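We treat protein structure as text, and this decision shapes the records that our systems exchange. Below, we set out a record of this kind in full and without editing:

***
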Amino acid sequence: MKKKHRKTLEAIFKRPTQAGISWIDIEALLISLGAAISEGRGSRVRIELNGEDAVFHRPHPEKETDKGAVASMRRFLENAGVKP
């Protein structure tokens, strides 16, 4: 895992939950972990990782995620067996 991906993963698992993580960085992390990402309708993104499936919405018009999306991503990664 590249240093940038590791920093993104640590930011997702940081407590208290922080907002402002770039969605592009989160997608790059997921791809590096071997996730399958497919486009849904509108801003939806389907993600499959280690047998876990989830649907997220790309943030728009901003490019950074809010606290709720970061918390949801943390739960998804935990369920998929990914921890920093």
Remarks:
- The beta strands are 36-39, 44-49, 52-57.
- The first strand starts at residue 36 and ends at 39.
- The radius of gyration is 12 Å.
- DSSP finds three helices and three strands in the chain.
